[in-house]
Specification:
Structural class of chain A: alpha/beta
Mean pLDDT of chain A: 95
Low-confidence stretches of chain A: none
Number of helices of chain B: 10
Distance between the termini of chain A: 38 Å
Mean pLDDT of chain B: 86
Oligomer: heterodimer
Radius of gyration of chain B: 28 Å
Strand content of chain B: 15-25%
Structural class of chain B: alpha+beta
Strand content of chain A: 5-15%
Shape of chain A: globular
Number of strands of chain B: 8
Shape of chain B: elongated
Largest sheet of chain B: 3 strands, antiparallel
Low-confidence stretches of chain B: none
Chain lengths: 393, 280
């Protein structure tokens, strides 16, 4: 059975060039980058080269790049590192649709006695920036709003948000795990103070991330230890993974145009054909401000896990915001925050593409998906009821 | 990914007896679109009052569809008296087991059967007759009690896996705990071990613990920023503190610091403490 992998917002294939770049650092080049001898020195040089490549993709200065273990660590380090530097300020602003790495930090802070403001989104997953303007107080220590949403692909107006936050002199963090490598980012001309990225979302391996910290941002290290990363993150550098991420960032820059032309066209084709061939489908999220690789659709009157398992049986790997797949009993907090009706929330499916996807793969999905939805609707008691209510039977 | 048995996968990908019987002898429907799964079960009896034909329609995940399919296979050829004895465990066993988190799918099958049989007999299983314990998923005390009895459930988490009750806002968890306790007592089984409660403290212990907590958990954070905090007095559960240094000028100290100190003291000393700030 062939594998059609369209779940790239969950994780991506490690690029072959990345694997190749990493391999020597598992075997012959095993030195510690902090060592005084030549053997460590040559590794230090490679770490710095990787740092340059990450900085180059982001339009940042290499000194502003801090390597971490993952996106979740970067988010925790940013938020808690800033709060630790402003102990007198006990208010945190974020959005209702963040990834768990920020969302659950907000819950944790609430339990610790912080006041937490969660900005709401509308039916298309958009923020109302007046809510942000009104939400900021003298007590606000940090604002953290994601760059692009993992479930719907909706891109927030990050620069506008940053401008509002900056005017009040408050540090602004963005979880850009889904945006980096997919859309161009230039931190040299940006209102962002801190930015999280995760290696495995852009064809580097799992277990490596970055926190960008703009020069002059007050920050207390989250991981306390040695002098590594200029004292901002203790722990011996994960050299092979750092080198791998550097390579992945270099490739991402090279592939940025392909992502935003060919991959985007594949996504648009998939979305368009789904809407044309299957009745009662809703597209989740603002179609005008969306990552080029993501489409989230809801099939009314059927349940997402069932769709996924039938797709999986054909080798197609996607994901869903349905209750049954999240391990909880309620559909995803993102779709609920957007007010997606229950007829559709349980039947949501996300396809997220990468540069490795092809037109043939989209056609393979489109060949089978209409049949799967029809089959499940045939089993669902609500579909016939719906047709009856429409006078269609 | 869930670990489904081959039998679950088979009954999901090739479900038996899908459909609705026209002019059925009994029909039962449970669940809803909002809850994420629903099952409509209908059956027809032969002259000997055995189930001749039975069909289902299900909205839900793979295990919900497989459970429904399995139920219809189990029911064929049974009398209603025999059918009534089919439990959710029978459905799960037929499928070679279900992940515990998915047991509610088998419970949904059993519930639909119950409603369908009642429908045949001209009775109604009315939700209104029972107390709704979980508002998020509309689960009544009767359903919870039944699931605990039939499946020997011990914890709130298990009750959620089997009935969905408590799987939303979690406000009903204390109530579910009470139900578990009373049902297990009824069953002659030991109640689940009570949660460790904070020991009742003597006044001296309480004062000492409050002092320790301020010294260890609260003051260092304030000192780092040029402030400090003094314990002035304790009266019953009221704790009076005064802010010192930089903190004492801060106009916003009242709300936030009081909250912070109170949260910490409640966490480490007693849930009943209230903090008041005094200026002196």
């Amino acid at each position: 059975m062939k594998t059609v992998y369209v779940d790239n917002n969950a994780t991506t294939m490690v690029a072959p060039e990345v694997v190749e770049a990493m391999l020597p650092y598992f075997s012959e080049l095993y030195g510690n980058a902090s060592s005084m001898h030549f053997f460590g020195g040559q590794v230090q040089k490679k770490v710095n080269e990787a740092r340059d490549k990450v900085a180059d993709l982001l339009g940042a200065d290499p000194t502003e790049i801090v390597f971490t273990s993952c996106g979740t660590e970067s988010d925790n380090a940013a938020i808690r590192g800033v709060l630790d530097s402003y102990l007198e300020k006990r208010h945190f602003i974020t959005s209702r649709v963040e990834h768990a790495a920020v969302n659950n930090v907000a819950t944790y802070l609430g339990r610790k006695g912080y006041r937490v403001t969660e900005l709401l989104v509308d039916r298309k997953g958009r923020l109302d920036l007046d809510d942000l303007r009104e939400g900021i107080t003298d007590q606000t220590a940090i604002v953290s709003i994601m760059y692009a949403n993992n479930e719907t692909g909706v891109i927030f107006p990050i620069e506008e948000i940053g401008q509002i936050v900056k005017e009040r002199g408050i540090p602004f963090h963005t979880d850009a795990v889904q945006a980096v490598g997919k859309i161009p980012i230039n931190l040299a001309k940006s209102t962002i103070d801190m930015l999280s990225l995760s290696g495995h979302k852009l064809h580097a391996p799992k277990g490596i991330g970055v926190l960008y910290i703009r020069k002059g941002t007050r920050f207390s290290p989250f991981m306390i230890g040695g002098h590594q990363e200029s004292g901002r993150r203790g722990g011996t550098e994960n050299v092979p993974y750092v080198v791998g991420l550097g390579k992945a960032c270099e490739l991402a820059k090279k592939n940025m145009e392909d992502e935003n032309t060919r991959v985007k066209a594949l996504r648009d084709y998939l979305e368009k054909r789904i809407l044309e061939t299957i009745p009662n489908v809703l597209v989740n999220g603002d179609r005008n401000h969306k990552l080029p690789n993501t489409v989230s659709v809801s099939f009314e009157y059927v349940e997402g896990e069932s769709i996924l398992i039938m797709l999986s049986d054909l080798g197609i790997c996607a994901s869903s915001g349905s209750a049954c797949t999240s391990g909880s009993l309620e559909p995803s907090h993102v779709l609920r925050a957007m007010g997606v009706p229950f007829t559709a929330a349980h039947g949501s499916i996300r396809f997220s593409l990468s540069i490795y996807n092809t037109k043939e793969e989209m056609d393979y999905i489109l060949e089978h998906l209409p049949r799967i939805i029809a089959r499940l609707r045939d089993i669902s008691p609500f579909w016939k009821d719906y047709l009856k209510s429409q006078g269609k039977t | 990914m869930w670990e489904y048995t081959d039998k679950v996968k088979d009954h999901f990908l090739n479900p038996r007896n899908v459909g609705e019987i026209e002019d059925p002898d009994g029909i039962g429907e449970v669940g809803s679109l909002a809850c994420g799964d629903a099952l409509r079960l209908s059956f027809k009896l032969d002259e000997k009052k055995r189930i001749k034909d039975v069909k289902f329609k299900t909205f839900g995940c793979a295990s919900a569809i497989a459970s429904s399919s399995a139920l219809t296979e189990i029911l064929k050829g049974r009398t209603l008296e025999e059918a009534e004895k089919v439990s959710n465990q029978d459905i799960a066993t037929y499928l070679g087991g279900l992940p515990e988190e998915k047991m509610h799918c088998s419970v949904m099958g059993r519930e639909a059967l119950e409603v369908a049989i009642a429908n045949y007999r001209g009775q109604k299983v009315k939700k209104e007759d029972f107390e709704v314990v979980c508002n998020c998923f509309g689960v009544t005390d009767r359903e919870i009690v039944k699931a605990i009895r039939e499946n020997d459930l011990k914890t709130v988490e298990q009750v959620t896996y089997y009935t969905k009750a408590g799987g939303g806002c979690a406000k009903c968890h204390p109530k579910i705990e009470t139900i578990i306790e009373s049902v297990r007592k009824d069953m002659g089984k030991e109640a689940p071990p009570p949660k460790p409660e904070k020991k009742k403290l003597t006044n001296i212990q309480k004062i000492k613990l409050i002092e320790e907590t301020i010294g260890r958990e609260i003051a260092p954070a304030l000192k780092a920023d040029g402030g400090d905090l003094d314990l002035i007095d304790i009266d019953g559960n009221k704790v009076f503190v005064a802010l010192r240094g930089k903190c004492s000028f801060c106009p916003s100290s009242e709300v936030t610091l009081k909250q912070y100190v109170e949260t910490k003291l409640r966490e480490f000393v007693s849930d009943e403490l209230e903090v008041e700030e005094v200026r002196q």
